[in-house]
Amino acid sequence: MAHLNQDFLHSIVKDMPSHLTMDDFISYCHRPLRPSIRINTLKITSKDFIDLMKPKGWTLEPIPWCSDGFWVALDNEIQLGNTIEHIQGLFYIQEASSMLPPTALFDDFDHTAQYSILDMASAPGSKTTQMAALMKNSGLLVTNEYSSSRVKVLHANVLRMGVANTALTHFDARVFGEYLYNQFDAILLDAPCSGEGTIRKDPHALKNWSTANNTSIIDTQKALIESAFLALKTGGSLVYSTCALSRAENQEVCEHLMSCFPDALEFQSLRHLFPDAEKSCTAEGFLHVWPQIYDSEGFFIAKIRKVTDVERQKPIPKQQKNFPFSPACTKVKTELANYFTHTFGIILPNDGLIMVRDLEYWLFPAAIANLIGKMRFQRIGIKLADGLKKGFKIRHEAIIALANQQQCIELDSSQAIQYLMGRDIPLQDEQQPQGEVILSYHGCPLGLAKHLGKRLKNNLPRELVRDKVMTSEAKCHFDINLKT
After folding, report:
1. Which of 29, 66, 243, 444 does the annotation list as catalytic?
2. Known catalytic membership, residue 243
3. pTM of the predicted model, to two decimals?
4. Domain boundaries, the chain
5. Looking at the domain that runs over 6-31+94-306, which CATH code has it been given?
6. Alpha helices of 345-437 — where are they, by DSSP H?
7. What is the pLDDT of residues 20-32, one digit of tens each?
8. Which of 201, 118, 162, 120 shows the shortest CA–CA distance to 370?
9. Does the domain at residues 405-464 carry the CATH identifier 3.40.50.300?
10. Theoretical Cys-Cys bridge with 118: which of 14, 184, 288, 427, CB 3.0 to 4.6 Å?
11. Quick one: average pLDDT of 248-263?
């Protein structure tokens, strides 16, 4: 049961809208969250995923504000994170209300355009991978995470979901306004916060809550939103979000930005973002989601447009030197493209940059060229292959991001489980050895194997081998609910 800090309750009562009650708030805080997922459209359409999971007994209820988000009801024995479909990146386990910030950011986007977007506080990657899917892996998505321990989790999720258009950074996000001033078409700042809205997921979220502890958090939020606004291009949109509930971490942070740049921004109303959005809409047009409104986590979302230029606050920083990559020559690009096409049926995208570092071959988003030298990046794009004495060796992440089912060997669920647990796959009938092959499940790639005739030798990277993998079959079968 949730531990509701009394100091928090006394503080929050003044921020709760008049049409909501504390009794309902407390009641919903003690209820478990409905499990929810977001289908990864970089790999599969929502319709195809629903058709795939219906025979397995999955009950999916659409989330009103995310066309690819669903509340899911399953047999309790099924652990979503251990299913084959989750491991291969067909869906992301994501709380429903956390799907709101990317939806708000992309609401008025031209989905055929190429955008440069910044995600200032990205880990573990739910919103990053949601935005990459909305971008269809095009353009540039700079993903930043300050916490060293969370950078690895972010990177793992980006690769699992087949995201190829990112450039990962590891900074205190207050530097972006200085180093990447006026660079981004849109920015998401899902700011670090007190986490008040997560009480249904984490019963101890408010155990140590205090006004004094929140003061430094609010100072950080104000500095981050200023940095975001400076990094935003004129005409661009900034979404500020938190999983906090107090006005101090939400409306007042946005008001602080307005006070800093009173003539340079306007608040954009989210009242019509989705049906019933007005139930959580504030007078300013922000969404202040309380747990009892949509039976979700608490969340806050504000959308801000930059309407005029603002001056730099600091001098232009020195250029970063010694960038370790260089563009591949025409001959190498041709040889690499032939290897991918003839061996695996993969056509390399023509809108990216093929870059070389020693004998490593990478695919960068084209728009990163404008940022090279302005900031150091932990990792850019995806690694395509390693160079050998003769030829190339494809990388797992390239398969996950770029392969299609045309030249894959399709496995059944038992074989897929064995593969993800690091085991070789015996073949019933001896065949002609085929060398390197891509294995798939549900028509989506799992990874690489070596076809030896009698068996498929497992080439899954050792760090991705799982001790526990389970089928997604539910014991109880229900109909898929597609009512909106």
Report:
1. 243
2. yes
3. 0.95
4. 6-31+94-306, 326-364+382-400, 405-464
5. 3.40.50.150
6. 396-402, 413-420
7. 999 999 999 999 8
8. 118
9. no
10. 184
11. 97
